[in-house]
Amino acid sequence: MTAPNDPDAGVRLAAEYLQLVAEGRTDDAAALLARPADIRELVLAGAGFTTLSRRTGRTLPTAMRAQAGGRQTRLGALRDAHRRDVDGLRTWLQAAAQELVTVTGLAEAARARLGTPSAG
């Protein structure tokens, strides 16, 4: 991560991770998750994944949205359980990254099946 004081750094990292996964560059994506070195950087990165996951989750059909909400709650508990543990937070970051990939895939599948929701 470049600047720990940059509130958008986590979202950019999450978007970059998602792009690498979409391109099939899983080793590069894993290396990206290994970059944050301290608790603050890990939490900032995880917040970016959470932001994108929740934003994408709000576009899901109702039942899928409810399931995504439950997974987000469990991820929050995992984060809280490892609040001061770098290795535990790294596990949480990896789980948050996987959740973003899952929610993005579900949203794409729902759009393909149901069409893009109309705006307004």
Please explain how this structure is put together.
With 120 residues, the protein is mainly alpha-helical. It has one domain (9-111). The protein is built from five helices and no strands. The chain has helices at residues 9-22, 26-34, 39-57, 62-81, 86-114. Helix 1 (9-22) packs antiparallel against helix 2, helix 1 packs across helix 3 and helix 3 runs parallel beside helix 5 (86-114). The longest helix is centred in the last third of the chain and has 29 residues, at 86-114.
**Fraction in helix:** over 70%
SSE series: HHHHH
| Mean pLDDT across all amino acids | 89
Instruction: Output the number of helix runs.
Output: 5
Beta-strand fraction estimate: under 5%
Counted up, domains total: 1
Terminal CA distance: 37 Å
Tell me the Rg in angstroms. 15 Å
Which term fits the overall shape?
Answer: globular
- Low-confidence parts lasting 5 or more residues at pLDDT below 50? none
How many E strands?
0
Structural class: mainly alpha
